[in-house]
Every structure is written in structure tokens, then in C-alpha cells.
Design goal:
Number of helices: 5
Shape: rod-shaped
Helix content: over 70%
Distance between the termini: 72 Å
Number of domains: 1
Number of strands: 0
Largest sheet: none
């Protein structure tokens, strides 16, 4: 019943062994990490650089693919435009030929009719009036055919312009998503390029 206490040495050593065995192995691992901190940091930096390089390579691949698709769409649009123009020219030539033929027929018919009734003054005056009417109708028909041709070509050119606008918007959207400059409807850049590293940090 004193303040001092005597513990058997063997029992104390066994207790110390039990305490040592109870310490988690993670403490040793943590000490290893602390001992190799610089090596761990270097490996992490190397891995981060590798990920950035892979991301940059993938971004460049996507940008090249977008450019290739845009060029294909532009080429297709140019080809369709050429077809529209060629078709419009063919239609214009056909309308012009038909109008000229109608005009020539009307003039010939008017002249024949005028020659046939030339002996009668009243009939001659009527023939003149009818001839003028037919000629006017022929001219009006030719003008109408030309106007129809112009409207047809203008409509096709408007369709092509709309196709080009949609193509440029698609390209601009793709490049904007990849960090490239944004293109206006006139094909000019309206924004700067965002560095790839910055976009991936965000």
C-alpha cells in the first residue's frame, strides 16, 4: 500500500511488444512517403505532364478532324454551287431560246397576216394593231421567261448562301469548343485562341 510500484520485467516487456504490434502499418508507410517525398512529387509532376501532353495531342487531333470536316463541307458546298450555277445557266439559255422562238413565230405570223390583208385599209390597220399586240405579247413573254430565270438562279444562290452560313456556324462552334477562334458570318475571327493548357486547367 505504498506510492511505489514494482512490475515484473518480463511482464513489462511483453506489454511493450503488444503495444508495438498494435501500431498500424500505415505509420511506417507514412514515414516511407515522408522519406521519399521528393521522389513522389517528381513522379506526380511527370504524370501530370504526361496527362497534359496526351490532352494536347487529343485536342490537336480533334481540331484537325474539325478542319478536315469543314473543308469537306466547303468543297461540297462549292460543288453544289457550281451545279446550281450551271443548271441556272442552262435554264436561262433554254428560256431565252424559247422566248426568242416565240417572238420570231409571233413576228412571222404577224407579217404573214399583214401581207394577206394588205389590200383592205381597215383590215390592214387591224392587222397592224394585232401585229403590235402579238409582238408586245412576245416581248412580254420573253421578259417573263428572263425574270423567271433570274428568280430561279437567285433562289439557288440564296440556298447556297444559307448552306455556307450554316457550315461556318458549325465550324465556329466546333473551334470554339476546342478553344479556337470564333468565326463571324464573314469567315473572320472575332475572338482570340485560348491556350490548350488554360482550357484544361479550367
Amino acid at each position: 500500500m505504498t506510492s511505489g510500484c514494482v512490475v515484473p520485467r518480463g511482464d513489462l516487456l511483453e506489454l511493450l511488444d503488444d503495444v508495438r504490434d498494435a501500431i498500424p502499418g500505415e505509420l511506417d508507410d507514412a514515414q516511407d512517403v515522408l522519406d521519399h517525398r521528393d521522389e513522389v512529387i517528381a513522379k506526380a509532376e511527370q504524370q501530370a505532364k504526361h496527362l497534359v501532353d496526351e490532352a494536347r495531342t487529343e485536342a490537336e487531333r480533334l481540331l484537325a478532324s474539325a478542319r478536315s470536316e469543314a473543308q469537306r463541307m466547303v468543297d461540297a458546298g462549292r460543288h453544289e454551287y457550281d451545279e446550281y450555277v450551271e443548271r441556272g445557266r442552262a435554264e436561262a439559255e433554254r428560256f431565252e431560246i424559247e422566248g426568242q422562238a416565240a417572238y420570231d413565230r409571233a413576228v412571222a405570223e404577224a407579217r404573214d397576216e399583214q401581207a394577206r390583208i394588205v389590200s383592205d385599209a381597215e383590215i390592214v390597220r387591224a392587222a397592224h394593231a394585232e401585229s403590235a399586240r402579238i409582238i408586245d405579247e412576245g416581248n412580254a413573254e420573253a421578259d417573263r421567261l428572263r425574270a423567271d430565270c433570274d428568280a430561279y438562279v437567285d433562289g439557288k444562290l440564296a440556298d447556297f448562301e444559307d448552306l455556307l452560313d450554316r457550315t461556318l456556324r458549325t465550324v465556329s462552334k466546333g473551334r470554339n469548343q476546342l478553344g479556337g477562334p470564333v468565326l463571324g458570318s464573314n469567315g473572320r475571327s472575332i475572338g482570340g485562341r485560348v491556350p490548350i493548357e488554360r482550357s484544361f486547367r479550367k
